[in-house]
Design a protein that fits this description.
Low-confidence stretches: 628-686, 688-696
Distance between the termini: 55 Å
CATH superfamily of the domain at 7-364: ABC transporter type 1, transmembrane domain
CATH class of the domain at 7-364: Mainly Alpha
Mean pLDDT: 78
Helix content: 55-70%
Strand order of the largest sheet: 8-11-12-5-13-14
Oligomer: single chain
CATH architecture of the domain at 7-364: Up-down Bundle
C-alpha cells in the first residue's frame, strides 16, 4: 500500500481490485440505480400535470406528449377548453394516474433487481475476501503472528469484512442513488424555471458545508471506535481462553474490572460517533424546514401574479404554476432523503475505509518464507539426517538467541535437548521445519539446506508432538488423519492402538466418529497427547520432534504417554525437549544448552558422572523428588508420600523405569521406603541405554 494514500484512496483501490470479476455486475447495478432515480424524479410529475391542467389550464408537455396524450383524449369532454388547450381534463387525470401506476410498478421491479444484485455482489465479495484473508494469514510467518493480537486478527476476518460488505450492499447503492437524485433534481428544476431553481438551491451550500464538516469528525470518531472494538475483542478472547486460570486464581473481579475499563472506552468512542450523527441529522432537518417555508411563500407569491426580486435575481409574475410549485416542494422534500442517506453514509464509508486499511495491511504483509521451486532433484521422503552448521539466530535484530550451534544428528538417532528456560531449546527445533530462517549458518536435512526444500516437502517429512497438543473441530478420525487424509480406517485404528488410546476411543459414544469439542476439551491432557502421538504415527514421517510432550501430565498419564512414545520413535530421527530429565534414559545423546550455545553433549550416564551442567540440573531435580540422594551419593531413598506414600512410590517407580533401574512393572501397593543402591542404578541405566541402542 503506497504510504501517501489516504483512507479514501485506499478504499477506492481496494474495491476496484477486489471487485475483479464482478465489475460488469456493478455496471448493471449502476444502470438499475439510474433507472430507479429516473422513476423517483418522475413521480411528482403526475400531480404537476393535473394541477397545471385544472388550475392554470396548461396541457402537459414532455417528449412524445403529442403521441401519447391523444390516446386518453376520449376520456371526458372537450367543452370548456381554452383556445390553447388540446387535451381534456379527465384525459389528463387518467393519463397521470396511469403514469403514476406505471412508474410505481417499474420502480418496484428495478428496486428488486438492484437490491438482489447488490446483495449478491456484497456477499460474494465478503466471502472471497474472508477466504483470501484467512488463507493469507495462515501463510504469514510465525514472526509476524507473534506481533499480532488474536482478537485483532479475528476482528479483521469478521467485523471489518462485514463493514466492507455493508458498504457494497447498502452504501454504494444509496450513495450513487443520492448523488444521481441530486443531479437529476437540479437538471429538472433548471429546465422548468431556472430563476426559481437558483433561489431554491440557496440552502444547498449550507447543507453541504454541514455534511463535509461533520464527515471529518465522524471519520475520526469511527476510526477510534474501530480500534477500541479490536481492544475489547482481544481482551475478551484472551480472558475466555484463560478461563481456567482466571477461576483458579479467583481473578474474576480483577478481569471484570479490566474488561469494564476497555468496554467503557469503547462506549465513549462509539457514543461520541453516535452523538455527532445525532447532531447532524436534526441540523439537516432544520435547514430543510427553513428552505421549504421560503420556497412555499415565494412560489405562491409569484404564482398569484407578483414579481419577486432579490439582488440580481428576478422571478417574473406567473412564471411559477401551481404544478411547478408542487413539484419544487416535492423535490425539496425528496432532497432531504438523499442528504440524510449521505449523512449516514459518512459513518459507513468511514468504517469501510478503516476496515479496508486494516485488511489491506494484513494482505500486504509478506507471506511466509518463500518456497524454493528448484528442488525437483530432491526426494519427497528423506532419511532424517539433521545438521546444524554454525547457526546464529534471534527474534529481534541485534539480539541473538542461538549462536555458534554445531550439531550432527544422524538418521534414526534419538537426541534430547535440555537446558534452563530461555536457553534456546524450542528455538532450535523451530528452525528444523523452517518456521524461521537462520541469520547465519545453515540447517540441513539429509545434507541439503532446508531453505532449498519446498515447505510442503520439508514439513511433510516431520511430525510434531507439542506440550499442549491441539485437536480440531470434527471427529476423532478426522483429527487422527490430519497428516494423512487418505489413510484407511484400518490404518487409523492401528495407529490408535499403538498409541494406547484405542480402548478409550471405543468407550466413547460414536467411537471414531465422536465429535471433538473446544480443541479437545472433552479429553484429558494425557488422552490429547496420545491422540497427537497416534496422529504422528499415522503421518509416519522420518523426523519426529517432541517438545515437552509430558510437561503438563501427572505421573500415570506421563507413563502412558511415554509408553506410546517408545512405540512412536522406532526407526525415526527423534529430537526431544524435556525439562523432566527422568524421561531421557532412552536418548542416544543428550545436548545441554546454556545461553544459546551447546555446553555439553553425551549419554545420560556420561553427563551424569561428569559433574557438569547436566549433573547439576539432575541434582536439582532430585532435590525435591520422592527419589532423594543420600549424603554419600551412593544410596537413594524412596520417601513416603503425605498420604501413605503411594503417590511418592508411583513417581519413583515411573522415574526408575525410564532410567532402567527397576525390572518389571511392580505392584502399586508395594510398601514405600526401599533403599536402592545408587551404583547399581547407574549400571542399570547404562545397560538399559545400551540395550535400547542395540534394539534401534
Amino acid at each position: 500500500m503506497p504510504r501517501d494514500e489516504g483512507p479514501r484512496e485506499v478504499l477506492t483501490r481496494f474495491l476496484y481490485v477486489n471487485l475483479r470479476g464482478r465489475r460488469s455486475l456493478v455496471v448493471v447495478a449502476v444502470s438499475l440505480t439510474l433507472g430507479l432515480v429516473i422513476c423517483d424524479l418522475g413521480l411528482p410529475f403526475p400531480l404537476k400535470f393535473i394541477l397545471d391542467k385544472y388550475v392554470n389550464n396548461q396541457d402537459p408537455s414532455f417528449p412524445l406528449s403529442d403521441h401519447v396524450l391523444p390516446l386518453f383524449n376520449h376520456f371526458g369532454s372537450s367543452a370548456g377548453l381554452t383556445s390553447g388547450e388540446k387535451y381534456t381534463v379527465v384525459g389528463v387525470i387518467v393519463y397521470s394516474t396511469a403514469l403514476l401506476l406505471a412508474l410505481g410498478l417499474v420502480e418496484a421491479v428495478l428496486s428488486y433487481a438492484q437490491l438482489f444484485l447488490a446483495a449478491f455482489i456484497g456477499q460474494t465479495l465478503a466471502a472471497s475476501l474472508r477466504v483470501r484473508l484467512f488463507d493469507h494469514l495462515q501463510r504469514l510467518s510465525l514472526e509476524w503472528h507473534s506481533r499480532q493480537r488474536t482478537g485483532d486478527l479475528v476482528q479483521r476476518l469478521t467485523s471489518n469484512i462485514a463493514d466492507i460488505e455493508k458498504l457494497v450492499t447498502d452504501g454504494l447503492v444509496d450513495l450513487l442513488a443520492g448523488v444521481l437524485t441530486l443531479i437529476g433534481m437540479l437538471i429538472v428544476m433548471l429546465l422548468l424555471n431556472w430563476q426559481f431553481t437558483i433561489l431554491t438551491m440557496v440552502i444547498i451550500p449550507a447543507m453541504f458545508a454541514s455534511v463535509f464538516g461533520y464527515t471529518r469528525s465522524i471519520k475520526v470518531a469511527t476510526k477510534l471506535a474501530a480500534k477500541d472494538t479490536a481492544d475489547v475483542a482481544d481482551i475478551a478472547t484472551e480472558d475466555i481462553g484463560a478461563i481456567t486460570e482466571i477461576k483458579a486464581f479467583t481473578l474474576e473481579d480483577r478481569e471484570s474490572r479490566h474488561f469494564r475499563r476497555f468496554s467503557r472506552r469503547l462506549f465513549q468512542s462509539k457514543f461520541g460517533a453516535g452523538t455527532l450523527q445525532a447532531e447532524f441529522t436534526p441540523l439537516v432537518m432544520v435547514l430543510m424546514a427553513i428552505s421549504n417555508a421560503a420556497i412555499l411563500c415565494i412560489g405562491a407569491y409569484v404564482m398569484v401574479g407578483n414579481t419577486f426580486s432579490v439582488g440580481f435575481l428576478t422571478i417574473p409574475a406567473n412564471s411559477v404554476s401551481a404544478g411547478t410549485l408542487t413539484l419544487f416542494i416535492a423535490y425539496l422534500k425528496q432532497l432531504y432523503q438523499p442528504m440524510r442517506d449521505l449523512s449516514k453514509l459518512t459513518n459507513i464509508a468511514s468504517s469501510a475505509g478503516s476496515a479496508a486499511e486494516r485488511i489491506q495491511a494484513a494482505l500486504d504483509a509478506e507471506p511466509e518464507l518463500d518456497e524454493h521451486r528448484q528442488a525437483r532433484g530432491h526426494p519427497t521422503r528423506t532419511r532424517g539426517g539433521i545438521v546444524f552448521r554454525d547457526v546464529v539466530f534471534g527474534y529481534r535484530e541485534g539480539e541473538s538467541v542461538l549462536h555458534g550451534i554445531d550439531l550432527d544428528i544422524t538418521p534414526g538417532k534419538r537426541v534430547a535437548l535440555v537446558g534452563l528456560s530461555g536457553s534456546g531449546k524450542t528455538t532450535m527445533v523451530k528452525l528444523i521445519p523452517r518456521f524461521y530462517d537462520v541469520w547465519e549458518g545453515t540447517v540441513e536435512l539429509d545434507g541439503t539446506d532446508v531453505r532449498r526444500y519446498p515447505l510442503a516437502v520439508l514439513r511433510g517429512n516431520m511430525s510434531l508432538v507439542l506440550q499442549d497438543s491441539i485437536l480440531f473441530e470434527g471427529t476423532i478420525r478426522d483429527n487422527l488423519a490430519l497428516g494423512r487424509p487418505n489413510a484407511t480406517d484400518a490404518e487409523v485404528v492401528e495407529a490408535a492402538k499403538r498409541a494406547k488410546i484405542h480402548d478409550r476411543i471405543m468407550a466413547m459414544h460414536g467411537a471414531y466418529g465422536a465429535e471433538v469439542r473446544g480443541q479437545g476439551k472433552n479429553f484429558s491432557g494425557g488422552e490429547r497427547q496420545r491422540l497427537a502421538i497416534a496422529r504422528a504415527m499415522l503421518r509416519d514421517a522420518p523426523v519426529l520432534i517432541l517438545d515437552e510432550p509430558t510437561a503438563s501430565l501427572d505421573v500415570e498419564a506421563e507413563a502412558e504417554v511415554m509408553r506410546a512414545i517408545d512405540t512412536l520413535i522406532e526407526g525415526r530421527t527423534v529430537v526431544m525437549i524435556s525439562h523432566r530429565l527422568s524421561t531421557l534414559g532412552h536418548a542416544d545423546e543428550i545436548i545441554v544448552l546454556e545461553d544459546g550455545g551447546i555446553v555439553e553433549q553425551g549419554t545420560f550416564s556420561g553427563l551424569e558422572s561428569s559433574g557438569g551442567v547436566f549433573a547439576r540440573m539432575l541434582a536439582e531435580q532430585y532435590q525435591y523428588s520422592p527419589v532423594r540422594v543420600g549424603a554419600d551419593a551412593d544410596v537413594v531413598t524412596v520417601a513416603d508420600g503425605p498420604a501413605g506414600g503411594d503417590s511418592g512410590f508411583a513417581a519413583a517407580r515411573s522415574m526408575s523405569r525410564w532410567f532402567g533401574t527397576l525390572e518389571g512393572e511392580g505392584e502399586p501397593n508395594v510398601a514405600p521406603g526401599p533403599m536402592v543402591d545408587f551404583r547399581q542404578a547407574r549400571r542399570s541405566a547404562r545397560e538399559s541405554s545400551a540395550r535400547m541402542r542395540r534394539g534401534s
